[in-house]
């Protein structure tokens, strides 16, 4: 009952042979076939270019189908280093910086609101209580004072932490609308921007004089006016504007003293 494979399928090729299994009487169909690849000159592995060229499909050889031989797939070329902060090519995915709480458009909008305090403040401006902008301004402020010979990083963080905690408690006692500590720190940090300008001036000009006193006073008024306007707009306490501005002005007054005088330093100021 065995049949010779060469009689059914022709002569065996150099790549392998077909073997058949005898029919056991269960069915009268085509006998089972087994393929034994030849170890020499085998085209089983697709890495060989000759095997790909010789592979013929329904539309002809691969080389004639417009498909380049080799590995397939949609592999995008790597971009610059800034692409790591994007969406990664996924639709609907927020950028990496936005997930980290760093939104440059929000930082720009809040900074412009502080630099133009006479404009009407939107009460929803602090819905996104980010701390990236305040942290950047504090670092810049401390760096400018360091360049002017006043290393005040410890005093800046200490005064900022104690002042923010005190104003947070006062605002929650005075207002019927609660406010969280992150929004308080965010408002106070953004409104520190005019004081950062005074710190930049202190690098080039000595502020321990008439000019420094005038600039410090102007910056205190500017920061206080901007911060109190944002707090009043967010908490809807327009009748208590001066009560809010008083402790805020004291806080920014401490920052002005750090800008003018070398607090805790040895020797005379610059």
UniProtKB/TrEMBL annotation:
InterPro entries with a match to the protein in the record: Yip1/4-like, Yip1_dom
Pfam families: Yip1
Compositionally biased tracts (Polar residues): 1-30
UniProt GO cellular component terms: Golgi membrane; trans-Golgi network
Residue numbers spanned by region Disordered: 1-32
Gene Ontology process terms (BP): endoplasmic reticulum to Golgi vesicle-mediated transport; vesicle fusion with Golgi apparatus
Alphabetical UniProt keywords: Membrane, Transmembrane, Transmembrane helix
Membrane topology type: Multi-pass membrane protein
Domain of life assignment: Eukaryota
Keyword Flavoprotein: no
Keyword hit for DNA damage: no
Entry's transmembrane regions: 129-149, 155-175, 187-207, 213-235, 242-261
Localization terms from the record: Golgi apparatus membrane; Membrane
Segments forming domain Yip1: 115-257
Listed PANTHER family: GOLGI MEMBRANE PROTEIN YIP1, PROTEIN YIPF
Family: Belongs to the YIP1 family.
Name of this chain's protein: Protein YIP
Organism of origin: Sparassis crispa
Highest classification ranks of the organism: Eukaryota, Fungi, Dikarya, Basidiomycota, Agaricomycotina
């Amino acid at each position: 009952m065995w049949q010779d494979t060469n009689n059914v399928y022709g002569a065996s090729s150099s790549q392998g042979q077909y073997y058949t299994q005898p029919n056991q009487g269960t069915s009268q169909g085509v006998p089972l076939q087994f393929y034994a690849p030849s170890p020499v000159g085998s085209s089983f592995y697709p890495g060989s270019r000759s095997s790909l060229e010789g592979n013929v499909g329904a539309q002809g050889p691969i080389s004639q189908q417009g498909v380049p031989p080799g590995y397939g797939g949609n592999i995008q070329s790597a971009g610059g280093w800034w692409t790591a902060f994007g969406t990664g090519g996924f639709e609907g995915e927020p950028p990496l910086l936005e997930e980290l709480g760093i939104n440059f458009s929000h930082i720009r909008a809040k900074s412009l609101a502080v630099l133009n305090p006479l404009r009407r403040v939107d009460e929803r401006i602090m819905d996104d209580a980010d701390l990236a902008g305040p942290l950047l301004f504090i670092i810049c402020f401390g760096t400018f004072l360091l360049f002017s010979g006043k290393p005040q990083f410890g005093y800046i963080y200490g005064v900022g932490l104690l002042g923010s905690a005190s104003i947070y408690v006062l605002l929650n006692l005075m207002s019927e609308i609660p406010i969280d500590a992150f929004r308080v720190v965010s408002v106070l940090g953004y409104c520190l921007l005019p004081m950062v300008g005074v710190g930049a001036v202190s690098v080039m000009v000595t502020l321990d004089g008439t000019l420094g006193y005038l600039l410090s006073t102007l910056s205190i008024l500017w920061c206080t006016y901007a911060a109190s306007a944002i707090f009043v707009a967010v908490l809807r306490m327009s009748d208590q504007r001066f009560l809010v501005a008083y402790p805020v002005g004291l806080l920014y007054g401490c920052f002005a003293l750090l800008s003018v005088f070398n607090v805790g330093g040895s020797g005379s100021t610059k």
